[in-house]
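Minutes, project check-in

Agenda point 3 was the complex the collaborators sent over. CS summarized: two entities, 364 residues total, and the question is how they sit relative to each other. Sequences were read into the notes so everyone works from the same version.
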Amino acid sequence: MRAAALFLGGLLACTAAGAHELKMDSQRETASVVRLSWADGQPFAFEAYELYLPGQDVPTQVGRTDAFGRIVFLPGANHEWRIRAFSADGHGVDQLLQLDASEGGNVGDAAGSGSAAGGDKPRAWLLAAGLGVVFGLFGLVQLFMRRRRP
Amino acid sequence: MHIPDGFLSPQTYLPAWGLAALAWAWAARGLRASLDETTVPRLAMATALAYALGLVMVPIPGGTSGHALGVAILALVFGVRQAFLACSLVLLLQALLFGAGGITALPVNALAIGLCGALAAVGARRLCAGMGETVSVALAAWLSVVVSGLVVALVLGIQPAIAQRPDGSPLFFPFGLALTLPAVLVPHALIGVGEAVVTVLVFRYAKARRWPTP
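CS then shared the predicted structure for the full assembly.
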């Protein structure tokens, strides 16, 4: 009787221990890759990032970019993600990422950059546009001052 | 150094907008009296230089990169008020065109770089006037970068304490002062050396052409 009770107790302990084991399975999915880089092309490497589904405050994925400034994630059927990446010196991005829909709602590659504005335009063009605004504004000030002078 | 959108809590940038509005009004007051037909083109050139300097990224050891600010040039040649306004314009353009710095964070960036940087430059130049022109201008430029960096690091570093999720994790910028202070100040101590060289060259150019300096 005592032996049976010990056996039963041992069996129950095994069942409880079994509840702590981790199950693992693997499957093939299409991943999306976002690459973050500085303006000079250097990778935004080993920096913290967070990925959010739209409207959510809790990140779906957190981690660090790899040595090439890449974030690899599985977007599933969601084509819109919010990405936040930070370096301790205050650089980074916080922007929405629109992924291309392909292969029945899954996604292919998506590329990001470290700058939130003017991403597709040549840098020289943006530089010239900014200089144009500066000289244009000061030109107006100069004109205004001349007209005010008697 | 430019803080992007999404890094600062509303508790930070909303009061900063109010403070910056007051500072912009103060800077604009008396501006007409301080400008004439000869200073406007010079100020335009210096503003364009600051805008361009802010876009030249220099790799810094440690995997990050930095750029000069140009605020010391503006402050030492034209004065604090003009420097603050010109820097604010530069920061606005860099944010709109390049995404370098955010619109919500614009007042913090403007106050840190345009106002604190300019005040530090002018203050250091006056304090160190006895050391000679080159040394005092160089020190003023170096200090303008470091002081701007210090303000940015402080503002960023207090974000985890200001806004948190229910589980206590930071809602905005995630790193505290222990990380932001060395991460911002060490690279900017190096950037300050480059800023000092550029500022001394421009200041000498201005003096050689007898530009009136404050």
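Noted in discussion: The first strand of chain A starts at residue 32 and ends at 35.
Follow-up: revisit at the next meeting once the mutant set is ready.
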